[in-house]
């Protein structure tokens, strides 16, 4: 989607190279800012709508008033105690998945690399399924187990992939092998359990935002407050890393250290999000490509990617709750269906060739 | 690209060696050895199992068949079809994985990328829940048609827009389709306990209880796929240089991709119909082959084709022996055995990137 019209070409012809580059940079920065602002606004709009719709409808203006502390008692209870935790969990987990996926895809320079390809979410899932089916646990404990499982898996992959440094490619391949092992553990548990218990586990494995309370929100909010700014800050190094190790080194970039910190951040984000909402498919995978298309150049778009993730999650959860009267599906059932059209739109409109996303 | 004759055991290959072509003699020797190993493993698969049968009885099965003899029946109706199914499925998935990685120019591509597994799964779930089909035999055609239809759809969607089915668009189309179909499958499974109860056993992937007729029905598809796939070696080599270079070399890029995709559809559709969705094999075996052969697809393809069934059959034998009198499904065992082995390989060698 190049926006260069004939006039701009004429302009470019009259300019010195320095001015041309400066203009291009300014245009780019302006576009990133505007895309980010629009995404944030759309996110907020969907957020408000998801707070207003339910068994008891609250008009959107009242929702906004309640959010800023001016609603009546009934809507205050419904929004603050029931709907707000769920919507906030959706926003935060979606953003975390989006960021994590964006970092992995850029780090490995492969659009197929996302946390659910390389075993992080499978580690969380296997641990959770063992908690649910092996020990008959439920609720918050399962989330803690999932978080521990994700971190343990990441650590094992890291140790196995370490050989005079970490190559992103080796990390991913070993992650795939780990993912396969963990998946077979999950399948084994599923074939050995009572069918009703297995179905409970399936709900968790699909990813669900049902019955999220402030306790969940608190944890993920703290984690996000630490991890997300870090990701954006350290993420600047990604642009240098994208040039390849040798180029980055010659620019004085500390390749190993920057790569390690990015892996740690991306893993932690995926682990927190999976622990809170379960392994919701597709959000991490699709956020970065969509964000990059919207921003419209081949750079990094970490903040837009996080916002796209949040938006996909919110919209999917809204559909999952209200699209089928009588059945509340887990959000993971919808993310794929909602995300797929976007991706197809990407495909049809994409005019870049090569290995990017 | 110099041809170096290295007769030492390639223990630690540095970057240069991996880029270099090994001598043809060594590669042919390796392939013959691998075929021999496959033959031995296939024999073991007939000789070993939950039930102890003496070698004498097994030979009699083939030379003096007695339909009253339980041992003969077990060998002829259970173990032989199972072994043949294992070989066919392994060959299909190993080859399809290598072709897919070449077409998608992506070392992380696997046969499932075209959406075959998701398509087969959805078709099987619909067969169980809507039509009440209840046996592995009954799922076969549903799985095959589901896999084939979805794979073709993914390929067509990937071809939309400019440039045709570029690697990136294929990957995106496959992932989108897989996610969408998986969601529908999960939605049905969550609302229908009876279907879920049957489906959870199919989705693990297994070779048990496959009848000889079924294997015979699927064999032509796989043979056709193998012939097609083995012809694509040169095309994949050209494609791996990028579309523009391939065109410059006089390749018809769209045709090459179409042929390769057709091979993948045939191979994966039939394999998934036979054994259920088996992952891991198609993704990892081509990497193992690449470690041995270097980046030349004319060698990667035959090696993948022979190495994959070895791993699959060994996993199946182990699954039969460890959990007597029951058995573990081959999909589970393969990941447990194959993953550590693969990790070891990845750690030891400098990987040839695509």
Automatic annotation (TrEMBL), chain A:
GO cellular component: plasma membrane
Membrane topology: Multi-pass membrane protein
Keyword Magnesium: no
Compartmental location: Cell membrane
Transmembrane helix recorded as keyword: yes
Predominant location: membrane
Transmembrane segments: 32-53, 87-108, 168-190, 219-241, 262-288, 300-320, 329-348
Pfam families for the chain: FecCD
Gene Ontology BP term (one): siderophore-iron import into cell
Keyword list, A-Z: Cell membrane, Membrane, Transmembrane, Transmembrane helix, Transport
Residue ranges of coiled coil: none
InterPro entries recorded: ABC_BtuC-like, ABC_transptr_permease_BtuC
GO molecular function terms attached to this record: transmembrane transporter activity
Entries under PANTHER family matching the protein: FERRIC ENTEROBACTIN TRANSPORT SYSTEM PERMEASE PROTEIN (PTHR30472), FERRIC ENTEROBACTIN TRANSPORT SYSTEM PERMEASE PROTEIN FEPG (PTHR30472:SF24)
Family, as annotated: Belongs to the binding-protein-dependent transport system permease family. FecCD subfamily.
Protein name in UniProt: Iron chelate uptake ABC transporter family permease subunit
UniProtKB/TrEMBL annotation, chain B:
GO MF entries: transmembrane transporter activity
SUPFAM superfamilies, sorted: ABC transporter involved in vitamin B12 uptake, BtuC
InterPro entries reported for this sequence: ABC_BtuC-like, ABC_transptr_permease_BtuC
GO biological process assignments: siderophore-iron import into cell
Keywords of the record: Cell membrane, Membrane, Transmembrane, Transmembrane helix, Transport
Main subcellular localisation: membrane
Top-level taxon: Bacteria
Entry protein name: Iron chelate uptake ABC transporter family permease subunit
Subcellular location: Cell membrane
A Pfam family per the record: FecCD
Upper lineage: Bacteria, Bacillati, Actinomycetota, Actinomycetes, Propionibacteriales
């Amino acid at each position: 989607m190049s926006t260069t019209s004939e006039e701009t070409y004429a302009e470019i012809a009259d300019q010195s190279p320095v001015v041309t580059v400066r203009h291009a940079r300014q245009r780019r920065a302006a576009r990133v800012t505007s895309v980010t602002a629009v995404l944030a606004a759309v996110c907020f709009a969907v957020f408000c709508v998801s707070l207003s719709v339910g068994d008891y409808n609250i008009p959107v203006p009242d929702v906004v008033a309640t959010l800023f502390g001016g609603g009546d008692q009934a809507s205050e209870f419904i929004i603050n105690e029931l709907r707000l935790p769920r919507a906030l969990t959706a926003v935060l987990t979606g953003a975390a998945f989006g960021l994590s996926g964006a970092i992995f895809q850029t780090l490995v320079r492969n659009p197929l690399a996302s946390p659910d390809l390389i075993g992080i979410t499978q580690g969380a899932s296997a641990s959770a399924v063992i908690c649910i089916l092996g020990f008959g646990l439920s609720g918050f404990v399962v989330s803690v187990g999932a978080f521990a499982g994700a971190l343990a898996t990441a650590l094992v992959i890291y140790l196995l992939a370490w050989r005079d440094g970490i190559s992103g490619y080796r990390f991913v391949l070993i992650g795939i092998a780990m993912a396969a092992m963990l998946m077979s553990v999950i399948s084994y548990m599923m074939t050995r359990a009572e069918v009703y218990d297995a179905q409970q586990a399936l709900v968790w494995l699909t990813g669900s935002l049902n019955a999220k309370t402030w306790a969940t929100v608190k944890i993920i909010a703290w984690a996000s407050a630490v991890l997300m700014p870090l990701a954006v800050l350290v993420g600047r190094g990604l642009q240098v890393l994208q040039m390849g190790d040798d180029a980055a080194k010659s620019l004085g970039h500390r390749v190993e250290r920057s790569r390690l910190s990015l892996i740690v951040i991306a893993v932690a984000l995926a682990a927190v999000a999976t622990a809170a909402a379960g392994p919701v498919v597709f959000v991490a995978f699709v956020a970065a490509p969509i964000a990059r298309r919207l921003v419209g150049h081949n750079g990094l778009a970490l903040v837009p990617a996080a916002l796209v993730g949040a938006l996909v999650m919110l919209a999917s959860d809204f559909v999952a709750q209200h699209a089928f009267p009588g059945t509340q599906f887990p959000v993971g059932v919808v993310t794929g269906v909602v995300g797929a059209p976007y991706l197809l739109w990407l495909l049809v409109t994409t005019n870049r060739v090569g290995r990017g996303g | 690209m110099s041809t170096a004759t290295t007769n030492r055991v390639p223990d630690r290959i540095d970057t240069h060696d991996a880029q270099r072509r090994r001598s043809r003699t060594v590669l042919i020797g390796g392939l013959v050895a691998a075929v021999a190993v496959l033959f031995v493993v296939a024999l073991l698969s007939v000789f070993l199992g939950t039930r102890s049968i003496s070698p004498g009885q097994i030979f009699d099965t083939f030379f003096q068949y007695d339909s009253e003899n339980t041992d003969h029946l077990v060998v002829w109706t259970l173990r032989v079809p199972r072994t043949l199914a294992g070989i066919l499925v392994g060959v299909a998935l190993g080859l399809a994985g290598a072709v897919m990685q070449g077409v998608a120019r992506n070392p992380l591509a696997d046969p499932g990328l075209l959406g075959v597994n998701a398509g087969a799964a959805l078709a099987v779930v619909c067969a169980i829940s809507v039509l009440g089909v209840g046996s592995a035999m009954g799922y076969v055609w549903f799985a095959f048609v589901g896999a084939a239809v979805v794979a073709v759809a993914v390929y067509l969607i990937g071809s939309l827009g400019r440039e045709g089915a570029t690697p990136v668009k294929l990957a995106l189309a496959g992932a989108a389709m897989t996610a969408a179909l998986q969601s529908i499958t999960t939605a049905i499974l969550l609302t229908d306990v009876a279907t879920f109860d049957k489906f959870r056993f199919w989705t693990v992937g297994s070779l048990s209880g496959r009848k000889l007729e079924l294997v015979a029905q699927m064999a032509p598809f796989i043979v056709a796929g193998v012939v097609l796939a083995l012809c694509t070696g040169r095309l994949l080599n050209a494609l791996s240089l990028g579309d523009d270079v391939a065109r410059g070399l006089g390749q018809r890029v769209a045709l090459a991709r179409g042929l390769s995709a057709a091979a993948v559809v045939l191979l994966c559709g039939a394999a998934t119909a036979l054994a259920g969705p088996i992952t891991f094999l198609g993704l990892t075996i081509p990497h193992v082959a690449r470690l041995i052969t270097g980046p030349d697809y004319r060698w990667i393809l035959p090696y993948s084709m022979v190495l994959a069934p070895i791993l699959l059959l060994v996993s199946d034998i182990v699954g039969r022996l460890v959990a007597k009198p029951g058995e573990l499904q081959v999909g589970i065992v393969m990941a447990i055995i194959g993953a550590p082995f693969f990790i070891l390989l990845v750690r030891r060698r400098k990987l040839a990137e695509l």
